[in-house]
Amino acid sequence: MDTLAALGHGFLVALTPYNLLWSAIGVTVGTAVGVLPGIGPALTVALLLPVTYHLEPTSAFIMFAGIYYGAMYGGSTTSILLNAPGESGSIVTAIDGHAMARQGRGAQALATAAIGSFIAGTIATAALTFVAPLMVKMALLFGPAEYFALMVLALTTVTAVLGNSLARGLGSLFLGLALGLVGIDMQTGQARLAFGVPELLDGIDTVVVAVGLFAVGETLYVASRFRFEREEVYALKGSKWMSREDWSRSWKPWLRGTLLGFPIGALPAGGSEIPTFLSYLVEKRLAKKPEEFGHGAIEAVAGPEAANNASAAGVLAPLLSLGLPTSATAAIMLAAFQQYGLQPGPTLFDSNPELVWGMIASLYVGNVLLLLLNLPLVGMWVKLLVIPRPWLYAGILVFSTLGAYTLNNNVVDLVILWVIGLVGFGMRVLNVPVAPCVVGLILGPLAEQQFRRALAISQGDATVFITHPISAALLAIALLLVVGPLVMRRRNRTAASDHAGKTSTV
Which residues form the DUF112 domain (predicted)? Predict the structure, then answer.
């Protein structure tokens, strides 16, 4: 009952004309950005962090939530009409969605994606409403040792999940941890890694790093790899409404995709890639016409798109209740909380209930706004695909540079922005994930603080981290995430060599 009362108060916050305006701006910008190929929600939120610096926190996060959901919606347009998924969660949608577009059924593919996203987003937001407070109650049992273990889990989770190579992920993480050490040590008062630059005594601004890695680095990478040739956009033909058969083939995949997306998105090793692929496999297994998969099956668009949007709400559950980011966008939103001096977790629900519940309520509102934006105005969004790429990328670079300068009005921030941007470009070229760097920069100093606090309380006894059951369990999971893939890889390599040896003797 307390949850429903808190949600009701959240709706009062979200439905004020001022916050409703920011929600509408967020979903519109998010959809427009999601439509543009190569620009995802993480880059957009990073780009807008400096702009919202002086905005009231509740309104800023209502807008960020709208951008997040909107970009998930908009990503399907690019995947279906251009076969160019801007986000990893839209890769599966492109397989059959683009095949439908080539057959002249692009409008139906976009419709099932939009309606499925609305249904999945609404159900998953309802799940978030009731799951997040339960996770908060669990987090209230935490002391300094448990919080340190939780942050270690967050760091290893993002490192192990967001990338193909554990070594590259750890390299990105250690870069972020090193950047987090810059500034004055809060315990001793000594300057660390400031190199005599007064502007570095306050530390490196997380917003500058986030914009540098995601906006500058990503844009330079996409611009360097793209040949700027005019791509073929498949026009929308015939009726833009789904037939009765389309509805009958879509509604079950929408629900199944939602059931897969939310819980997997909420897991530390979740994200949107796993549930979308699982949804595709489930729908192919249950389909009456499995031979259509890969050639334009509407179920293969409906299920994965629902899973993609449900996972977005799932990602917000650990972020808001535990401060645990499980995706690149969640890492950037964590940087946004840091920008306002806020730390997601159980204390946030008590200290800023208007922000948390206003943001959750705005997700319901945003879902309705997105449905109204996407179904009737899909033709308008398609026109964004013809914007010349040089204009687009040049605009992003100028906008990010001006935004970073306005944070503190000093040139040092600009130098850091472009150095970090070039590092981010190099990381993308070498296939090093950038999200662990942002998470390391944010959570590194907090983990150090909790580590020192736990040792102070235990009078220097380091076993406090393994004698507390919750802390020991979290550290064991973190160790499993790091060691597990290495053991599996070695076992597969041994099995492959044994198999090769048997075939050679035969």
Answer: 20-438
* Helices assigned H by DSSP within 184-243: 206-210, 218-225
CA neighbours closer than 13 Å in the CB half-sphere of residue 258: 20
Distance (Å, whole) CA 378 – CA 107: 8
How far apart are the C-alpha atoms of 353 and 424, rounded to whole Å? 36
- Model confidence over 413-462: pLDDT tens digits? 888 889 999 998 999 888 888 878 887 887 888 888 888 888 888 888 88
Both tokens assigned to 385? 């695909």
The count of residues in the chain is 506
Nearest Cα residue to 370 out of 62, 126, 115:
115
Contact indicator for 431, 199 with CB cutoff of 8 Å: no
Residues 56-69 have pLDDT tens digits of: 889 989 998 888 88
Helix H or strand E encompassing 54: none
DSSP letter (8 states) at residue 193: S
Nearest to 204 by CA among 438, 413, 435: 413
pTM of the model: 0.76
Q: How far apart are CA 244 and CA 15, in angstroms?
A: 35
* Alpha carbons 347 and 323: distance in angstroms, whole number: 10
Q: How far apart are CA 452 and CA 3, in angstroms?
A: 35
Burial class (CB in 10 A: 0-12, 13-18, 19+), 375: middle
**Rounded alpha-carbon distances, angstroms, from residue 376 to 100, 241, 372:** 19, 10, 7
- Return the DSSP state at 36: S
Cα torsion 264, 270, 273, 274: sign:
negative
Beta strands in 405-484 (DSSP E): none
Question: Is the predicted pLDDT of residue 228 greater than 60, yes or no?
Answer: no
Angle 159-161-167 from CA coordinates, rounded to 5°: 45
Q: Are 332 and 42 in contact (CB under 8 A)?
A: yes
Of 190, 207, 216, nearest to 398 by C-alpha is 216
Closest among 269, 267, 165, 264 to 489, alpha carbons compared: 165
Q: What is the DSSP string of 67-114?
A: HHHHHHHHHHHHHHHHS--SSGGGHHHHHHHHHHHHTT-HHHHHHHHH
Residue 27 near residue 377 (C-beta atoms within 8 A): no
205 pLDDT tier (thresholds 50, 70, 90): confident
Whole-angstrom distance, CA of residue 49 vs CA of residue 205? 11
Q: What are phi and psi of 261, to 5 degrees?
A: -70, -45
Q: Angle CA(158)–CA(258)–CA(239) in degrees, nearest 5?
A: 120
